[in-house]
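Late entry, written up from scratch paper. The run itself happened at the end of the previous shift, but nothing got recorded in the book at the time, so transcribing now.
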Amino acid sequence: MHSHQNFVQNLLDSVLKLGQFALPNLCLLCTTPSKRLLCPACLDSLPYMKNACLQCALPITSSDTELCGQCLASKPSFDASISLTSYQGPVPYLINQFKHQRKHNIGAFLSQLFVDRLLSSRTRPDVITFAPLYWRRQFSRGMNQAERLANTIGNRLDVKVEPLFKKVKSTAAQQNMTRKERLKNLKNSVILSNTVLIKDKHIVFVDDVMTTCATAETTAKLLRTAGAGRIEIWTIARTPKPK
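Output as recorded:
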């Protein structure tokens, strides 16, 4: 089943690539002619992260503060987080198109943008891993979006991507859940599938969006227990604090 799924994904990717030669290149957001997926104006207008908590990447108002109130009050199990954008403006649309409409070129574009804008002076990790999906959800979606993001980033950095986690229990969709509800929802649903590569290593965990840090905290705890040296969370987008 897995090999058949990969064949279908590769076939779809080939069709998309052929379409890029057959059709004029238009900006995905404003439809003006563009050599890239987004025109320069739309690219510049994305809500890039400026002032953010160094630990959980939550947007904060003051550049004088390094950590948000939540991280000061309760230290997460991971050491640092970075996000490319805030989850606002056109970003939800872009991620939805990639995640649910199988627009794989959007995921590749956002991953490369992440590397270009954020990683030039950052220490290269030993291992990159990603948020797991339960097999049924991955089959219906046709991919694991976090895995695709991780693979693009890993290829650019020349860092091996390893599936360190396995989702062993189906969980309810978390869009409207609080942090407490999400942590309860995820309890006992994820296990480490490979512990050999973790001890004393600098590990990066990749996901598309970080909302309450519940997934990051759940997986980071497992990595910390297995002896990881440094744990970072890398995401394309971070939701702002609810008003």
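The beta strands are 80-86, 127-130, 165-167, 190-192, 202-210, 230-238.
(Scratch paper discarded after transcription.)
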